[in-house]
Each structure stands twice: as C-alpha cells, then as structure tokens.
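**User:** I keep going back and forth on a fold encoding question. It is easy to fool oneself when nobody else works the same problem. Could you pick a protein and write out its sequence and tokenised fold? Could you put it straight underneath, so I can go through it closely?

**Assistant:**
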Amino acid sequence: MAEAIKDILGRAKGDKVIWAVVFVLSMVSMLAVYSSTGSLAYRMVTNPGYYLAKQVMVLALGLLIIFVVHNINYTRFARISSVLYLVSLPLLIYTLACGTTLNEGARWIKLPVINLTFQTSDLAKLALFLFLARVLSMKQDNDLIKDLKRGFIPVVLPMLATCVLIAPANLSTALMLGISCAILFFIGRVRMRHLMLMAVGGFMCLCMVYTVSKITGKGRAATWEQRISDFFKEKPKGEKHKDPYQVEQAKIAIANGGFTGRGPGKSIQKNFLPHPYSDFIFSIIIEEYGIGGASMLVFLYLLFLWRCVLIFKRCPYAFGAFLAVGLSITLVFQAMLNMAVNVNLVPVTGLTLPMISMGGSSIWFTSIAIGIILSVSKHVDEMEGQKKQTEALMAAPITDLVQVAMADAGAEQEEKKKKK
C-alpha cells in the first residue's frame, strides 16, 4: 500500500506547492465538516460519521480527478472549449425553467439514472473560462484584442450571456464571475475604455434582471433587497441594531474563537448556525482554531494564487497562461468572498468555501479546474527541462557529444541483438 502511494505521488507532476495546498485544504475540510455536521446528523437521525465518510469519498474522488486531468495536455481543452460553452447555455436555461428550487432560486438539476444533483453554474464557470482563454489567446496576435468589434465584443458577449443566465437564481456567483472575467480581460490587454463599457453593460443587465424579478414576482429580488438592507441598515438612536440571525451567530462564533480557538470539535455555534458545514463553515473554523488558524487558511489560498501567477509568467503560450490565471482568480476570489461574508464585511451570499465546504459536484468541478492548472504547470516544467537539456548539450565539448552519440548507437545495437 505504501509503495503504491509513493508510486502515485511520484507520478504527480506540476507545481508541488499547489499539490501540497490542495492536500492541506482537503485535510482541513474533513476536520471542519466532521465537526460542523453533528447537529445535522442528529436531525437526520444518522451516524455522526456518515457525513465525514461522504466527504472523504468526495475529496478522494476530487484528488483522483485532479490527478487524471493534470496528465491531459492542456491544449486539448482548447478544442472542446467552444462545445462545452455552447452546452452550458442550454443547461442554464433548463435549470431556470425546471431546476430544483431552494430559497426561490433554481440552481440544481438532477441527472437521470445516477440521480446526481449538480449546480449548472459550476459547469458554466469552467466552460466560460476555457472559452475565454482560447478566444483571448487568439486575439493577442496583431493586437486584435484592442479592437472593439473584432476583439472585445467576441469575448464580452459570452461572459454577459452566462452571467445573465446565472443571475436570477444565484446573483452572487454571477457578480463574482463578472468581476473575475474583468480581471482576466485586464490581464489580456483589453482597453480600459472597453472595460468601462463592459461595467456599464453589466450594470444594465443587473438592473434588467432585478426589474423582471420585481415585476413578475418570480426570482429573488426580495431576498436581494433584504440582504442589502440588513447589511447597510443604520442603527436607530437609542436602539440596538439587530443583525440577521446567521450573521449574529457567526459573530458569536468568531468572538468565542479568539486567537487560539476553542479546539477541534469544540464549537458551540455549530448547533445554532444555519448551514455551518457550507456557507458559514469559515466561522466554525475560526471558533475552533482561532484567528491564527483562519489566517493560515487565508495564507493557503493566497499561496495557491501566487503559484498560479508564477505559472502564468512562465508559460510561453497565451492559452495556458490565461487558463492558469483565470481559473485561479475565480477560485481564490470565491474563497475570499465567502470569508468576507463570515466576518460580515459584505452582505450574505450563497457562495461556499472551495475545497473546504461540504459538497459533491462543486468540489469535483473545482478539482477539474485545479487539474487543468497543474496540467499547464506540468507542461511548462517539461518544456523548461527540455530547454535546459538542449542548452547543456550545446555547451558540452565536441568530444563529450561524440561519446554520447556512440553510447546511444551501442545501446541501439544491443537492443537489436536482444530482439534477434
């Protein structure tokens, strides 16, 4: 067993720091999910270890997905990016019309036969970044990306279409996706005035989605109003301002944690917080591991982003570079937004903490994204290794080169004799 694990680890290529970050996040996820699902197990009348076992299997499959995907040449994803994007749009429309509804938002669809439920927005995010990385890389030649009609519109329209279809059921994901794409466009040398035009267009689309929801009475307009009102509401004179229940419980958890925390499994607020194993798992981590433990978690996500930026700088091909930076930005941005919600820096959203919160398909789609990033890293390492080997051969004396050639010829003759 130990030898098999060593063999697998030896086959894992790409950035070793990213691999280490993923493993540590997986360990944190198991601890946090096991601790935060005690009350859920009690309500569902099941064994407390059930959700831990389920999360272990999900994470194990996620790591396997990363391993498989990182061995695929990332250039192959350019070939399927258009098809994947075109498939994601009808799925988003189907989800709005027939998807599973929770809190007045249809986000999930169930796959027949296997009965697996997944958020189509997760697939749409991945498909969109694959598609945008391909188009951006093609538009870099001759500065086409700086042209409004031939460069900017072909990348901004797909982004707006995806965000508009996600927004009615999951506005926070749509806004996060739009901002992440704007950062990718800036890195991809899109003109600043075009980015401003995109911001205006995005605001108009947001107003349109809100107006339609308000007029028809369908959608989540009332929920958005309530969350923004709760966040910006001023404290009346002489009265104590009351936070929403989940925000209040998260604050109590953070206050209980202090700097060192109460210790693993000793959270109290996990019994009071709604969904302490998903949206508000970070507040449980603070309560049990303190500000110090939470800071280490923030450091891990930032370390992941930094290593991806290094891959972006090292990759000689635009498609791989845009893939690495685009996928990493949206993953880390989602993590930071989730943490900001937990400490009440932004209004409540429905975003989970990547690779930490309890989940299934969301972890697997995140794993695919990480696998693609590692695929880019792996092929960059291989190219740099080949370059160094070529440079070493070019710098070697002619006598050494002759000896190497003779040794290779001798090895070939030996192989022929063995075959005979």
In short: The mean pLDDT is 83. The CA atoms of residues 34 and 49 lie 7 Å apart. The longest strand covers residues 105-111.
